[in-house]
Amino acid sequence: MKHMNSEVKEERTSNKKRIDLFLVPIVLIAAFLNLFKIWTDEYANAYYTAAVKSMLQSFHNFFYASFDPGGYVTIDKPPVVFWIQTISAKIFGFHGWSVILPQALAGIGSVLLLYVLVKRTFGVWAGRFAALAMALTPIVPAVSRTNNIDSMLVFTLLVATWMLFRAVRTAKFGWVLAAFAMIGVAFNMKMLQAYMVLPAFYVFYVVATKITWKKKIAFLTTATALMLAVSVSWAVVVDSTSADKRPYMGSSQTNSVLELAFGYNGINRLTGNTSVTGSSHKQPAQAQQQTASSETKQTSNSNAESSQSSNQSKSSSSKKMQAPGGGNQNGMFNTGNPGPFRLFQKGLSDQISWLLPFVIFSIVGLFAGVKFKGPYTTKQKESLFWLAWLLPVAVFFSIAGFFHQYYLIMLAPPIAAFAGAGAVALWSMYKQRNGWKSWLLPGGILTTAALQVYIMSPYVSSIGVAPIAGVGALGVILALVLAVRKERKNSVTNYLGVAAMVVLLAMPAYWAMTPIIYGGNSMLPAAGPDSSSGMGGPPSIATNSKQSGFNGMQPPGSSSGNSSSNNQMQPPSGSSNGGQMQPPSGSSNSGQMQMPGGSSNNSQMPNSSSSKSSPSKRKSGGMNAEVNKKLLNYLTKNNTGEKYLFATTDSTSAAPYIIETGKPVMAMGGFSGSDPILTVSKLKAMIKKGEVKYFYLSGMGKGGQSDVITWIKENSKEIPSSKWQSTSSSSQQGPSGNGTLYEITLK
């Protein structure tokens, strides 16, 4: 800490080759948080894992990122990350950990990249603190331990940042092109989310380069054109291919990648209209429920007793589940309510905001005395870059109609960069007794400790009073002592500064470990004592580290005999809402979702009591997905050459069977069961051609498939449950219970 007030001192020879010994433990911490126990997650996010299984089988499936081996429908994201996951699975074998590994390595790589980016300009201590802050930001390891896309996306954008910084240092236009092309690659990971960093890239290049305005405009225009070309390259190829020669583009309404990019995965995230059937989040009783159905892929059914609870839930939905901006304090999936302080609300603050007050004080210190017209130092230029990354992304998450907690990883790099650079800058101002600026360090420590106490307070029943009181007391004491000792210069003051940073990073470090301690959720990753619930926010029940999904819910395929609680999700019995999720009835758990019924564990798909899953493995994917061996044996035995093992409404029911068998299973309505893929005439033709004859239907995921499902029920033979369902689930038979198996043969 005593060296933090020095300027950057790069030793041009031996130090360039020397390993920073302080960086080694930081990388080891990141490796532990990102890699430890990923081998226990057998399915990861089953929706994406099923796609990797399918992509391993043919180049056709690989190129289009087909969800199923039959090439019926794609997943709802571009293919680049899944290409990488498929290559990993090809090298190491198909396992849950092998599809998670690329993201875990990307999380570690992001820590190293941030160290390199910050160290060069702000000094080695700034780089170390930035790297450590990135490693300990809770949402970073929570996401990196899954096969979701965001960790790889952030790593790719940091690679683009390194290229941009190099372009400015070397004054070589080729690096500018490479940086923007890399953003185009990132677009093919998660579409428009990659463009959130563009303000930072444009502002930094304009401010940092010493060339004429004419060249700046020409270079940026050319680089942007290249970025757009790379971005839409895969989309143009897919959309130009005849629809009958490729899978349907999942979660689109017009079978178009570009529509998916700029609609469902683009503008609709801001407006909150993420329902693929087109309803708006401004209709809280329906659209929010539909969004939940679409986003979480929960396709389980409740038993007949849930009808009454369903009606009660509908009457109370406006109280228990408000659309963004409504009265629910934690908001949809604990993402809070839109507003300027949203990132400080429950459910979001504990994922990303632990150091935000310190970052704000750091920004003030780094930009103190800066004149609008310049000239700017290198530190000020790069600070402007991180600010131009931080502010637009923070504004988006403050006003967006719909997103998940794990999207917040986009804020981690600028927050960590400012934490590192700011620690050095504020310490220098403090040691030099630089007027009012010398008060920024103790002020930042005090306000950050106060926020951390606020973040932890809802979790007192889980973590106890001691850590909350400890952080609060130590933060106040250290801030006051630093303020009092401002006129003194000795080693004691240096140790106090180190102690303050340790205190501010202690609880983020614990939070970052919670996916390991309590278990994680590969479908909706979030950190915290209830991390296995995938809901973030204050815990309401004890969760089992081997469970996944929503607060201990037993979704399709689960064989648990545990009794349900108010936190378990069950779909409506006899509902006609096409798989829309109903809010809890009489629940006190704000922001947590429950399907009507709430008291039964009969929310299982084909019963999985005979599953041979190892108890040490965690079949998560937000579905606790398992396979009903009796059903699988029946379908396999009675298959007479059909292409598809069976057809079902959506991806949740299909994914575990694809993962376990590698055989085609048709998700008729795609991801959530709402894609308008099938028509009755098309289905008739497929049946006549002998492509499919068995249909498993639950009460969820109808959406745009209601006519098809009605036709199936009217023209099929119901298979007695005794032939395919385990005896332990006999009380859950029928269309209002556990789902029904049908057979159709047409001549």
UniProtKB/TrEMBL annotation:
Location of the Putative mannosyltransferase YkcA/B-like C-terminal domain: 631-715
GO molecular function, one term: pentosyltransferase activity
Signal peptide: none
GO biological process: lipopolysaccharide biosynthetic process; response to iron(III) ion
GO cellular component terms, A-Z: plasma membrane
This protein's name: 4-amino-4-deoxy-L-arabinose transferase
Lineage: Bacteria, Bacillati, Bacillota, Bacilli, Bacillales
Compositional bias ranges of the Polar residues kind: 273-282, 541-550, 578-593
Positions of region (Disordered): 273-334, 528-624, 718-747
Coiled-coil segments: none
Native source species: Priestia megaterium (Bacillus megaterium)
